[in-house]
Amino acid sequence: MSTKTKTLDLVYIAMFAVIITICSWIAIPTTIPFTLQTFGVFLTLGMLGGKRGTFSVFIYILLGVIGIPVFAEFTGGLGIVLGPSGGYIIGFLFTALVMWGMEKIGDKKWVLPLSMVIGLIVCYAFGTVWFMIVYSKTTEAIGLWTALMWCVIPFILPDAIKISLAVILCNRLKKVIKK
Fold first, then answer.
1. How far is CA 151 from the centre of its chain?
2. Which of 50, 55, 62, 117 lies in the 20 to 30 Å Cα band around 102?
3. Residue 148: which of 161, 170, 131, 169 has the closest Cα?
4. Type and span of the H or E element at 35
């Protein structure tokens, strides 16, 4: 691998960490505010592929952990990641690993959207378990159904739309931009 390729990889990894950050700051005001954070994660993984995309997601999370306000509502810090919703942020890394693993299936059209859906399910699962543990320690015990109603069900339709948009954008951009 040439120095030029390595440098370009680092630029893409950093650039997409910034894209995830910007997407996390964009909130759609509803009763439950929706950010474009998951869209940024899916776009990053779809465009960069598993290895570079996973590094980009990891850097995004690391920046937030050290206190740079990259998370939703311009927040950052270890307290956010260790808080009730922090499991979903960490879950993005598992989403990335799932999508990286599914690349081995090949470059068929259905692999990208399926890997995003499976990655999202893994993120939901990890984040919901995390939420239940942290919420139980800080407030009171919470049942799975309640946690799903608070943390997953309201986000399914918006996340499905984000996946659809990410797939469309990735397919169009890949024709123009070389990996």
1. 15
2. 62
3. 131
4. strand 34-35
User: How would DSSP label each residue in 51-110?
Assistant: HHHHHHHHHHHHHHHTT-S-BGGGB-SHHHHHSTTHHHHHHHHHHHHHHHHHGGG-S-TT
Asked if 20 contacts 57 with a C-beta cutoff of 8 angstroms, the reply is yes
Token pair recorded at residue 145? 């159904």
Which among 47, 171, 151, 82 is positioned nearest to 159, based on CA atoms?
151
Per-residue pLDDT of 70-125, as tens digits, reads 999 999 999 999 999 999 999 999 999 999 999 999 888 899 999 999 999 999 99
The half-sphere exposure of 169 on its side-chain side, counting CA atoms within 13 A, is 16
Contact 116, 46 (CB under 8 A): yes
In angstroms, the first-to-last Cα distance of the chain is 14
